[in-house]
Amino acid sequence: MLFEQLVKESPLAMYTCDASGRVNFFNAAAAALWGREPELLKEYWCGSWKIFYPDGRPMELDNCPMSLTLKQGKPHVGEEIVIQKPDGAFRSLLVYPLPLFNEKKVLLGAYNTLVDITDKKSNDEKHEILSAIVESSDDAILSKGLDGVIRSWNAGAQKIFGYTEEEMLGKHISVIIPPRLISEEEVIISNIRAGKKIDHFHTVRMHKDGHEIEISLTVSPIKDAFGNIMGASKVARDISEIKKAERQAYQFAKRQTLLNSIGTAISEKLDVQEILQKVTDATTEITGAAFGAFFYNTFDESGESFMLFTLSGAPREAFEKFGMPRNTAIFDPTFSGQGIVRLDDVTKDPRYGKNAPHYGMPAGHLAVVSYLAVPVISTSGDVIGGLFFGHPEAGVFKAEHEEILASVASQAAVALDNSKLFEEVMALSEKKDEFIALASHELKTPLTSLKGYLQMLQKEKESKMAEFFVEKSLKQLDRLGALIGDLLDVSKVEAGQLQFNFELFDLHKTLKDILETFHYNSSSHLISFSGLEEKLIVWGDQQRLEQVIINLLNNAIKYSPNAQEVFVELQRKEDQAIITVRDKGIGLTMQQQKGIFKRFFRAEGVAHIAGLGLGLYISKEIIDRHAGSFIVKSEIGVGSEFGFSIPIKNVEA
């Protein structure tokens, strides 16, 4: 009984089969290993759900080790099989089936002991994989004791540091640490003793040949079976190329930022001083020059270049107390536009020091050894000036700096040309404004006189024909006067001088007065009003807002020649007054709607309709000045709705 109890409670999986192979006993450990309980005396050979060979091939039940033991009457111990449990899990086993005989050597059955080696096998495989990884890794992987003595050294460590495994085993880790950084080892060991891991510590170590290597270092504690810290493992990755690439990327990004800032300044600014100062500052930084300067190529009576315009990296007095660059052999190639001059040591150039009175650098001048000069040439071929750079050390400027500065100088030349053109355009614009004002005045004077004479004739009722022509003439004069007014307003808008007289007034009454006037003057269209029928007090320029409303009504009538009605609506929404004018006219495309507020804009297909394309341009400016917004809805062939909203002024009753 005691033996039976020991077997049942054993942590080892055990089971037995009778001589025919039927399972007639199994213990709890076997059932747990199989993941199921087989039916006694009904299932054969074993209780496994599925069996496989170690290489993964399915194993037939009657070929399992227990079956072979019973069939052959001899043990098949120590064989490896793989079983699959009903939940899908796989386990690797070593099996030990032994036949059972009675005293007459008659086979009674067999018993089998199952040993689960899954975890051990997994650990062995992991160890083999890790060993292979360590040996094949390009990173340096090594271990050391708490005394700093190296215990292992892989091929990656030899590749990075140049020492073989034989050279380093038993040596102190300080062999590869630069003397100035030896204190790092004390900090690392202190952390390891405290059980702390060091991750991706960027530092420097030494190669066998003496050159320094930038590395990323990860250090972890090594513990024995009892959890005691006995040393440290180190993984060192050579990041020299990465760091070099980072520095290059940083320099490139910095350079690009500077170049972009130059491009932005050149494209956005039209001020010569600002452009040249930005160019000088940025190029001085890009080249690493101690100072940089731009000199205009202007000449005095003797033909010498003289005029310092911008300076970077040095006080202006450093130049102004000396004579400006002269037409010497050194400076002539720049001021004559021959090309870029780059000298590692200007004092050793045969052209240097040939001119009186200094025969070289004047006393107290900024020290210049490295020298770089770039001509700035306009699109017309004229040399505008030159960018000059200096540094007290030799060989500072490189060929790449020439390429960059050549590009910058070209951009600067274009910007300077644009600045000159801008100044000319501004001068022409001023003359244009003067002309428009003068022309408006000159045109209005005879128009006023003509209108007066025609109005006098209109009072005479002698001739119906005369009255007809007088009426037509007066209408044309009104139209011409409106066009002249629009031209004058455009000029004032561009000059920022469009005058406004803000006051409180009733927008509802103003709109009604305008509609009443249109009712009597417009014979082609009926003006229909809807919406608010009460006072609506706003703060604005009444005359200017009348100008906008009249323009919208005129446009609605003008661009709906085949319709008979125009619809006007006044609304109040929260703190906004909204006026809309809707027609059933020709309409606008989406593309045309994008340009309607531009001055002189005329939609395609309306050349037969009179107008200069100024009304909406001026109206938009008026509404903007009232802190309002325009409303535009239109569809080709259906019609258009134009309107605006402006804030309502709250007035105490």
How would you sum up this structure, described in words?
With 653 residues, this protein is α+β, with helices and mostly antiparallel strands. The protein has 17 helices and 23 strands. The strands form 5 sheets. Strands 2-1-6-5-4-3 form a 6-stranded antiparallel beta sheet. A 5-stranded antiparallel beta sheet has the order 8-7-11-10-9, with helices on both faces. Strands 13-12-16-15-14 form a 5-stranded antiparallel beta sheet. Helix 9 (272-287) packs antiparallel against helix 12 (399-458). It is flat, with a radius of gyration of 49 Å.
List keywords for this structure.
653 residues; 17 helices
Which structural class do the helices and strands define?
alpha+beta
Global shape: flat
Low-confidence stretches: none
What does the radius of gyration come to?
49 Å
Number of contiguous helices: 17
Largest sheet: 6 strands, antiparallel
Termini separation comes to 112 Å
- The number of E-state strands comes to 23
| Helical coverage, percent range | 25-40%
List the strand order in the largest sheet: 2-1-6-5-4-3
Percent strand equals 25-35%
Average of pLDDT: 80
